């Protein structure tokens, strides 16, 4: 027993305490790691939740913009027809309880506005609102209006930093053939790339597709304003002048329908469902006090038009009888932009004239009274609207020959009436109404128009690319549009180019296919964020107001560009 006692281990109570302490420390470290991990997971979950919330805030901003833009009452009331620079409507819009977490949710619609003055950063200003997508050159639309690509090329070559080979390559990319322009590139070129591909040879789906075109680099397309905030920030200086790139002037989104400013279909001059009386009534309703315009449009459909020629008075010959009531006056006649003065004989509607057979009939110039009398007689007799009017501008610098009244003698004077649109003063009052309320397009096939450029908001570089315009005329346009009434037909139709910017009717005739004064498509840059601090989300979208039923044409999360802007809290 003693020997067994000697073999027993010594008493080690301290070892047990040490072991317990080690276990406690290990468990504590494990608990700490677990708690730290859970805290990190909570932070990640909270940040993810907040990021999701800010994305929802930004998306709310897009839908908010859709609602305002598509509602005529909101456009006229809340926005006062100014969706481009409207801080009260678009800055720091609160969502939910402002006393809630992080001060509640907010969104702001921010745009980098073009002041059209200065250069570089000084040309641009941050505004609360959106930008007009119709103010840009629509590559797809210009190609549709002119499939040869000439109009598109001439517009592209006027843009900053554009070269002939890049312009030709862009036209080749969107035209329908596979034949290269003189400095262009087609599928044969792209087939030799390390990763071969073919030219699009069709409409673009987005501007980003241009990066596939030979010579179009990210620097050329997007400039060095990489975060799209209108200024050169740290890390954006590429050693060149400040530029927002070609994307500032180009688009593939656009929409235009053949309706007036209120959204009502325009009067189709060839409408088979309207007889002379019905069409005359509709024209009188929209033209109001401009009775002479209603009469001339009706005369164009009833009798046809011809180019203006100076009226002449034939000799009555010996033994002839002069008209019972005549007045010789000097009349100014506009012929293809030139002014001519001719002495004519104005005959009232009660005038009768006889002449010897050898004299031949006399052609005299009539006025508004003779025009109205002839049109009224034709409408009352249910005359057919048998003449076509191909374009509205075809009624400028023209004249109509009135039918002779029933019972007139064979040698009664032939009365020719010049269009009131030939008179520059009347043109300024009548042309906007004509373009606003009347159309020559068949609404069953041409209701959806090829989108045109909004000359009210287009930058000078885009205006300079329009057919026939020179720099002095562009300067006139930019100056004239500063005080325009957004509801005036001269504004909404682009006719202010004639009425305010003093372009000739001949030049406007060449432009009318490409220009308008209103828009249906807007680009929105919505930033969602919290009232105090935290993450933010930037969403870029293009909205089509779609006649009161808005839709989104483009939607992209661009938060990778960074916050970029100082946000109103």
Largest sheet composition: 7 strands, antiparallel
Oligomeric state of the chains present here:
single chain
Number of helices: 19
Helix-and-strand structural type: alpha+beta
List unreliable stretches of 5+ residues.
Answer: 311-359
Portion of residues in helices? 25-40%
Shape: elongated
What's the count of strands?
Answer: 21
- Strand proportion: 15-25%
Key traits:
21 strands, 569 residues, 7-stranded antiparallel sheet
Describe what this molecule looks like in 3D.
The structure is a single chain. By secondary structure, the protein is α+β, with helices and mostly antiparallel strands. Among the domains are: 16-55; 291-426, no CATH class. The protein contains 19 helices and 21 strands. The strands form seven sheets. Strands 1, 2, 3, 4, 19, 20 and 21 form a seven-stranded antiparallel beta sheet that branches. The chain has a four-stranded mixed beta sheet with strand order 9-13-14-12, with helices on one face. Strands 5-6 form a two-stranded parallel sheet. β19 (521-530) and β20 (536-544) form a beta hairpin. α10 runs antiparallel to α11 (291-303) and α11 (291-303) crosses α12 (368-380). The longest helix is centred in the N-terminal third of the chain and has 58 residues, at 13-70. It is elongated and about 150 Å long.
Secondary-structure blueprint:
Blueprint: H1 2-7, H2 13-70, H3 72-76, H4 87-90, E1 93-95, E2 105-114, E3 124-128, E4 131-132, E5 137-138, H5 139-145, H6 150-156, H7 164-174, H8 187-190, H9 218-222, E6 250-251, E7 256-257, E8 267-268, H10 276-287, H11 291-303, E9 306-307, E10 326-335, E11 338-347, E12 363-365, H12 368-380, E13 398-401, E14 414-418, H13 424-437, E15 438-439, H14 443-446, E16 448-449, E17 453-454, H15 460-464, H16 471-480, H17 489-492, H18 496-499, H19 505-511, E18 515-516, E19 521-530, E20 536-544, E21 551-557
Parallel strand pairs: 5-6, 8-15, 12-14, 17-18
Antiparallel strand pairs: 1-2, 2-3, 2-19, 4-19, 7-16, 9-13, 10-11, 13-14, 19-20, 20-21
Helix pairs in contact: 10-11, 11-12
């Amino acid at each position: 027993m003693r020997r067994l006692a000697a073999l027993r281990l010594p008493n080690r109570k301290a070892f047990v305490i040490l072991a317990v302490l080690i276990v406690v420390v290990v468990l504590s470290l494990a608990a700490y790691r677990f708690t730290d991990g859970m805290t990190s997971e909570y932070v990640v979950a909270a940040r993810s939740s907040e990021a999701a919330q800010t994305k929802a805030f930004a998306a709310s901003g897009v839908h908010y913009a859709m609602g305002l833009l598509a509602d005529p009452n909101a456009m006229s009331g809340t926005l006062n027809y100014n969706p481009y620079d409207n801080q009260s409507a678009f800055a720091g819009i609160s969502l939910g309880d402002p006393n809630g977490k992080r001060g509640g949710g907010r969104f702001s619609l921010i745009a980098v506005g073009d002041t059209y003055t200065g250069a570089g950063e000084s040309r641009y200003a941050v505004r609360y609102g959106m930008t007009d997508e119709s103010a840009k050159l629509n590559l797809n639309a210009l190609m549709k209006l002119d499939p040869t690509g000439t109009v598109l090329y001439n517009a592209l070559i006027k843009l900053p930093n554009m070269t002939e080979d890049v312009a030709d390559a862009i036209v080749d990319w969107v035209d329908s053939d596979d034949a290269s322009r003189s400095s262009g590139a087609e599928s044969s070129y792209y087939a030799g790339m390390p990763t071969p591909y073919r030219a699009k040879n069709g409409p673009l789906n987005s501007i980003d597709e241009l990066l596939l075109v030979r010579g179009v680099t990210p620097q050329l397309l997007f400039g060095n304003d990489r975060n799209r905030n209108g200024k050169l920030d740290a890390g954006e200086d590429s050693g060149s002048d400040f530029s927002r790139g070609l994307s500032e002037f180009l688009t593939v989104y656009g929409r235009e329908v053949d309706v007036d400013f209120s959204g009502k279909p325009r009067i189709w001059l060839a409408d088979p469902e309207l007889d002379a009386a019905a069409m005359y009534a509709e024209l009188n309703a929209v033209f109001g006090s401009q009775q002479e315009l209603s009469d001339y449009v009706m005369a164009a459909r009833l009798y046809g038009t011809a180019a203006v020629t100076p009226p002449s008075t034939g000799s009555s010959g010996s033994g002839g009888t002069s008209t019972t009531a005549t007045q010789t006056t000097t009349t100014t006649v506009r012929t293809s932009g030139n002014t001519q003065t001719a002495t004519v004989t104005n005959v009232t509607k009660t005038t009768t004239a006889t002449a010897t057979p050898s004299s031949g009939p006399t052609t005299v110039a009539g006025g508004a009274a003779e025009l109205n009398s002839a049109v009224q007689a034709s409408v009352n007799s249910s005359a057919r609207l048998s003449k076509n009017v191909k374009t509205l501008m075809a009624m400028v610098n023209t004249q109509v020959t009135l039918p002779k009244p029933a019972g007139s003698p064979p040698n009664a004077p032939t009365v020719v009436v010049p269009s009131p649109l030939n008179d520059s003063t009347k043109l300024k009052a009548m042309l906007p109404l004509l373009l606003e309320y009347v159309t020559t397009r068949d609404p069953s096939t041409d209701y959806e128009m090829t989108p045109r450029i909004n000359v009210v908001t287009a930058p000078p570089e885009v205006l300079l690319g329009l057919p026939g315009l020179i720099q002095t005329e562009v300067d006139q346009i930019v100056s004239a549009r500063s005080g325009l009434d957004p509801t005036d037909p001269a504004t909404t139709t682009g006719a202010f180019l004639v009425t305010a910017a003093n372009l000739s009717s001949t030049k406007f005739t060449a432009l009318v296919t490409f220009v308008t004064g209103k828009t249906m498509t807007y680009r929105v840059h919505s930033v969602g964020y919290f009232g105090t601090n935290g993450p933010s989300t930037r969403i870029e979208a293009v909205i089509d107001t779609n006649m009161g039923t808005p839709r989104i044409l483009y939607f992209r999360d661009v938060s990778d560009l960074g916050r970029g802007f100082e946000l109103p809290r």
